[in-house]
Amino acid sequence: MDEPAVWSGEDGGRGGRPLQGWTVAITRPEGQGEALARRVEALGGRAWLAPLLAIDRFPDRLLPALRRWGDWDALVITSANAARALAEALALTGRADAPRPVACYAVGRASAAAVARAGLTAEVPEGVRTGADLADVLVQRWAGRRLRVLYIHGELADPNFAARLAEAGADVTAVCAYRTRETVADVAAWRRVLAASPHLAVTLYSPSAVRAWLRQLQPLLLESGRTVAFVCVGPTTARAAREAGLADVWMAPASHDDGVAEALAAVAARGGHKPRRNEEGERT
């Protein structure tokens, strides 16, 4: 099966409105898709907020760690929802930001921005797009050092992540501060969108979203006979979509909204179909 295409944006000759005629279904949890929706509409498209997942955060689980804040040498956060849980935990203690700065590492610009709202500055090491990437970087940096690390994560986090940090000599305290659950899709609304939209792109942000799509909406798509472009955030999500058999899978060049918007513009410029590759594997 083809690898997901990765592209930066072109406007397809639409005078700065590359998404004209396109509907973009944004499947992020409620409250997390509005910024991308504004970008889509600014590019001439119609944005439809259609969450496939919901997030339950547990900031109270972080309170013991906050009481021991002076113990930590570093904070590791691999998602924006983990950072939001930290900010909510700080609010429960009556603080707007962390008691003192610690070295902080994050995956992606969205996670770093969410960490900033908790009063911390997070480093996103160059080339890091996944938790596994971050673990590799930190293993190299921390080799032989006994750092005390607070790792805030979600229920579906890679169980090997903390172990990899421990291999580098870190003393890791891992706190699960949120969980992801599948919502019930509005099948009737999806049926209307599939029937009425000349061009449709669906954004997928996690393997959980891919699984939710497969269970609830892939049968409807097959029934409709429509083609849909799937724009995935991150290589893990793109791989999950590809392995699930979804057709026309694209990967955004970066995990933030700008990267997703670029990918959507490129999808539209090519009519929603990935370019062919020549014998050398170059895109044509």
UniProtKB/TrEMBL annotation:
GO terms for biological process: protoporphyrinogen IX biosynthetic process; uroporphyrinogen III biosynthetic process. Keywords: Lyase, Porphyrin biosynthesis. One of its GO terms (molecular function) is uroporphyrinogen-III synthase activity. InterPro entries: 4pyrrol_syn_uPrphyn_synt_sf, 4pyrrol_synth_uPrphyn_synth, UROS/Hem4. The keyword Lyase applies. Pathway: Porphyrin-containing compound metabolism; protoporphyrin-IX biosynthesis; coproporphyrinogen-III from 5-aminolevulinate: step 3/4. Residues 35-259 form the Tetrapyrrole biosynthesis uroporphyrinogen III synthase domain. Coiled coil: none annotated. Pfam families: HEM4 (PF02602). Belongs to the uroporphyrinogen-III synthase family. Catalyzes cyclization of the linear tetrapyrrole, hydroxymethylbilane, to the macrocyclic uroporphyrinogen III. This is Uroporphyrinogen-III synthase. It comes from Alicyclobacillus macrosporangiidus.
